[in-house]
Amino acid sequence: MFQNVKYYPGDPILGLMEQYKQDSRSQKVNLGVGVYYDDTGHVPVLECVKTVESQMVEKHLPHEYLPMEGFPGYRQACQKLLFGSEHEAIKTNRIATIASLGGSGALRIGAEFIHQWFPQAKTYVSDPTWGNHISIFEGAGIEVHKYPYYDPETIGIKFTELKQFFLQLEAGSIILLHPCCHNPTGIDPTHQQWDEILDIIQQKQLIPFMDIAYQGFGDDIDTDTYAIRKAVDMGLCIYVSNSFSKNLSMYGERVGGLSIVCPTAEEARLVQSQLKFTIRRLYSNPPAYGGNVVDRVMNNSQLFQQWEQEVYIMRDRIRAMRSRLYEVLQAKIPERDFSYFIKQRGMFSFTGLSPQQVNRLKKEFGVYLVENGRMCMAGLNTSNIEYVANAMAEVLK
Ligand code: LMR
User: Fold this and answer.
1) Which BP terms does GO give this entry (predicted)?
2) The one catalytic residue among 158, 188, 224, 246
3) Assign residue 164 a region: left if phi > 0, alpha if psi is -120 to 50, beta otherwise?
């Protein structure tokens, strides 16, 4: 009966994690999946999270159903983080926001909405992008194409090609953008480049879909939203998917959000109703545990400040690892320029390693990178960095 079912060979990122877990070598290093590990190699439970978890256990909160769109405090917290607490769009109720199952869930709900209400719209993603962007949008029935982005020659952005590409797109096309910490390259547009990109988007009536999964890991929590806030200030209608997986270290609790900024409060009301309908049909309502944690941390000023500091500790540790890797590799192979390690931002570095070199790292050294050469810098620590640098130098010879 099921003999014609096609086998799914697995995901290039999550499949790698499965392989890593099965690897019995003690010196193995996981630099594949986008997860922050602390200097001892563990996924941290943030102190602000521990505080609210203790409160929650003490209270024995009942396991009730949540509203389809999630806790009101959670949704307000998403809006304030993304748009700034005093933003006119928030005050005038022009933003439809739902809690989602992580950033992936937000992307999928957004894609479902686009497919239903704008069925002709094609989506354009950066070349390269996080592979699941393509799967999620195609899975919702949307045609996906790539726009020029990464330039391996300069280890920068193909900015002229990108602009030319956007200029010839049909009005209403969806442009998937990474407001900060581009995944997988770690290369972000400058503020001036964002201004130029958004001018073209406005001029050509394109629709930005901004996916922000690493807020706080680039510059800081507010500055990382530059492109989002600028777009809203320009009066653009935008979709924003956000995630607390990384910046609250709540990966398994699936905490994210989708916000759609609309021209009027009435349109936001209509959009909100449809997002709820989509949720009802897909999974009815979100799980409460992670939602409760986010709500309680983000809406308590003391815990919020503590959270910000904890995000910056993670950000700074990644930066320190970037500098150290750069120093060690540069000293080992002086003829090659490794400065990209310190220029790239966020968790990821596009190393330029070929699939063969990545494979050698895995097979010979137990060092796991994504096949496209993406390395998660947050998997490096003071105990493994020399080992990884030596292994990389070996395969680069
Ligand atoms: C990543 O890019 O590694 C993360 O976003 C995790 C994932 O789901 O792929």
Assistant:
1) L-phenylalanine biosynthetic process from chorismate via phenylpyruvate
2) 246
3) alpha
User: Per-domain residue ranges for the chain?
Assistant: 14-45+305-396, 65-299
CATH class of 14-45+305-396: alpha beta
pLDDT at residue 163, as a whole number: 98
Q: Which residues of 15-29 are buried (b: 16+ CB within 10 A; e: fewer)?
A: ebeeebeeeeeeebb
* Ligand 1 within 6 A of CB of 34: yes
Q: Is residue 390 helix, strand or coil?
A: helix
Structure tokens given for 119: 């069925």
Confidence check: pLDDT of 23 > 90: yes
Question: Which of 16, 20, 31, 33, when mutated, tests ligand 1's pocket best, judged by the most ligand atoms within 8 Å of its CB?
Answer: 33
Cis ω for the linkage preceding 44 (within 30 of 0): no
The Cβ of residue 282 has, within 10 Å, a number of other Cβ atoms equal to 12
Tokens 């409160």, residue?
Answer: 55
Atom of ligand 1 nearest to the CA of 34: 3
- What's this model's pTM, rounded to 2 decimal places? 0.96
Q: In this structure, what token pair is assigned to residue 285? A: 């309502």
CB atoms within 10 A of CB 299: 15
- Please list the residues that pair with 126 across neighbouring strands: 147
Q: Residue 260 pairs with which residues in a beta bridge? A: 96, 239
Write out pLDDT tens, residues 296-337: 999 999 999 999 999 999 999 999 999 999 999 999 999 999
Please determine whether the domains at 14-45+305-396 and 65-299 fall in the same fold group of CATH. no
130 carries an active-site annotation: yes
For 184-234, how does the pLDDT look when each residue is reduced to its tens digit (9 = 90+)? 999 999 999 999 999 999 999 999 999 999 999 999 999 999 999 999 999
**Token pair of 324, please?**
């150290």
Cα 263 to ligand 1 centroid, rounded to whole Å: 32
Extended strands (E) in 174-254: 174-177, 207-212, 238-243
